[in-house]
Amino acid sequence: MRNTDMVKYVGFSNGGKGTTGYKVRFAVDSVRRTKVLAGIGCTDITWFELPKDMTKADAVQYLQTFAKATPSISGQVYQDAISKAVSRLVSGDNS
Questions:
Q1: Is 69 a domain residue?
Q2: Which residue range forms the structural domain that includes residue 77?
Q3: pLDDT tens across 9-38, in order?
Q4: For a FRET experiment, which of 1, 10, 38, 48 has its CA 20 to 30 Å from that of 57?
């Protein structure tokens, strides 16, 4: 999925192939994407439906605001994942 593609869901997963810790995830179809993520070993997969279709950069900025008001995802592990996604998608750091 390209960064300019539109997504309907944004969320988190823990672990998975080659990944440690929590990571921000994006999806057009949350059911199909959950199956793919579970298949590569991700756990604790959580989705939030966006108010409208958004690019990944817009979705992560929305998630940043949404997380501050949502106690279940306001923890440090989620904030760290959001910060990494913002750095990569919004600030333009593609590393």
A1: yes
A2: 7-89
A3: 999 999 988 888 999 999 999 999 999 999
A4: 38
